[in-house]
Specification:
It is built from ten helices and eleven strands. By secondary structure, it is α/β, with parallel strands linked by helices. It folds into two domains: about 100 residues, Periplasmic binding protein-like II (D-Maltodextrin-Binding Protein, domain 2, 3-Layer(aba) Sandwich); about 140 residues, Periplasmic binding protein-like II (D-Maltodextrin-Binding Protein, domain 2). Strands 1, 2, 3, 4, 6, 7, 8, 9 and 11 form a nine-stranded mixed sheet that branches. Strands 5-10 form a two-stranded parallel sheet. Strand 6, helix 6 and strand 7 form a beta-alpha-beta unit. Helix 3 packs parallel to helix 4. The termini are far apart.
Length: about 300
């Protein structure tokens, strides 16, 4: 009787050990799938957030062992997170500044820049607005407050309602430097105090669509048929050009820019593999499908 009890006990112990080992293996496999080493934290540009989401969704369907978190908040937010070493990748619709580089270096962070796409900034108005084209100088004068009524540009006698992205947006910074200040680094012109700051690209589209007095600017990938895109001339007497894939690639459209992802030093292998994939034909096909301009 005693031997039978011992055998049963031994048998039960063996079953428990085998179950524990099996659970341990499954547990490790589960942990591997959510292991922080296979996790990518990606934050930043609101202009790029939809593109980043599509990229992540496609990549995770190919590599289910990788988990990618995408959040917006603006280029400044993404770069700030990179400086504080809390993200793997920072999306930015503008270049990192010298001051941001200094702050990063102080924290032991070495930002590495990768151009992942190109974009055009479209100047948009309500479809009821008869204006069809503007020069860069006219756009600058509108946003700096020198031109305040559409009649000054040959349009209706209506007050101009200026719309802009918020100051943390890389698109806001780019537009201020390249359009409002016309690329002059010694120019300290600022947006008119009456400019309405909106938190998203979609918000600008919605407001322009509803307001016949409004003017706004947005990345080409966000433009909808409900707004009118104006053709832009770099200077008076120059050709007026619409923002398109061809006009950007041929450097004909005056308001175009690169879109960036910043990583830290030498990325972890799975992060570098993801960056490489973004530049691959598959990654760049998604760029094109969303209305942005591929880099190759």
């Amino acid at each position: 009787m005693g031997k039978i009890l011992i055998n049963k006990a031994t048998f039960l112990l063996l079953i428990c050990l085998l179950t524990a080992c099996h659970a341990g293996r499954n547990g490790r496999q589960t942990e591997d799938l959510v292991d922080k080493n296979l996790y990518i934290e990606n934050k930043g540009s609101d202009t790029m957030v939809n593109l980043a989401l599509y990229w992540a969704e496609k990549y995770q369907s190919i590599h289910p062992e990788i988990r990618i978190s995408i959040t917006g908040g603006g280029s400044g937010t993404g770069i700030s997170s990179l400086i504080n070493n809390t993200v793997d990748l920072a999306n930015a619709s503008r270049e990192i500044t010298d001051q941001e580089l200094k702050e990063a270096n102080k924290n032991g962070v070495q930002p590495v820049e990768t151009i992942v796409a190109r974009d055009a900034i479209a100047i948009i108005v309500n479809p009821e607005n008869p204006i069809e084209q503007l020069t860069l100088k006219q756009v600058s004068d509108i946003y700096s407050g020198k031109i305040n009524n559409w009649s000054e540009l040959g349009g209706d006698n209506r007050p101009i309602v200026r719309l802009s992205r918020e100051t943390n947006s890389g698109t806001h910074v780019y537009f201020l430097e390249k359009v409002v200040r016309l690329g002059n680094k010694n120019d300290h012109t600022i947006f008119s105090a009456s400019t309405l700051l909106l938190p998203s690209s979609e918000g600008i589209i919605a407001e322009v669509q509803d307001n016949p007095n409004a003017i706004g600017y947005d990345g080409l990938g966000y433009i909808t048929p409900e707004v009118k895109v104006l053709s832009i001339a770099e200077k008076e007497g120059k050709e007026y050009v619409y923002p398109t894939l061809n006009s950007v690639n041929q450097n004909q459209y005056a308001i175009s820019r690169n879109l960036f992802i910043y990583s830290t030093g030498t990325p972890k292998p799975h992060v570098q593999e993801y960056l490489n994939w973004l530049l691959s034909p598959d990654g760049q096909e998604i760029v094109k499908s969303l209305g942005f301009i591929p880099i190759q």
